[in-house]
Design goal:
Blueprint: H1 3-25, H2 27-30, H3 41-60, H4 65-88, H5 98-117
Helix pairs in contact: 1-3, 3-4, 4-5
């Protein structure tokens, strides 16, 4: 893995760990984001926060990087309906500018692609034939 890719792996891990910890420090911010058709918003916030922390830590451990990255891709896809809910109901989130709610949607795609990048196996170097 190149130094740049390693640095980006550490950055992504830090983002997920920070976000996951935030779920426990400020659950009152995350609970309203859970779409109303889902049950137990407090539990879902705790589970998603724990998954973010676990995924972030997993990215830091080479043996678990690929598995953690797949888990984070799945998590990002699973929470996408919450981002859609926010974008379609901006009146429920007056503290967030409406444009920011829409910008989050493509950012989610970037995060999915970023995590997916770490699901790829390292290329094998073959010795040159002599």
């Amino acid at each position: 893995m190149t130094a740049a890719k390693t640095g980006l792996r550490f950055l992504l891990a830090a983002l997920f760990i920070f976000s996951g910890v935030s779920h426990f420090i400020r659950p009152e911010y995350f609970v309203p984001i859970v779409p109303p058709y889902l049950p137990a918003p407090e539990a879902l916030v705790a589970v998603s926060g724990a998954a973010e922390i676990a995924g972030g830590i997993g990215l830091l451990i080479p043996r678990f990087t690929r598995m953690a990255a797949w888990g984070l891709v799945a998590l990002l896809i699973a929470v996408f309906p919450a981002n859609l809910h926010m974008a379609f109901h901006p009146e429920q989130f007056p503290q967030v500018p409406s444009a920011a709610l829409w910008v989050r949607l493509p950012i989610q795609g970037v995060l999915i692609a970023w995590a997916w990048w770490f699901t790829r196996p390292a290329p094998h170097k073959t010795p040159l034939a002599t």
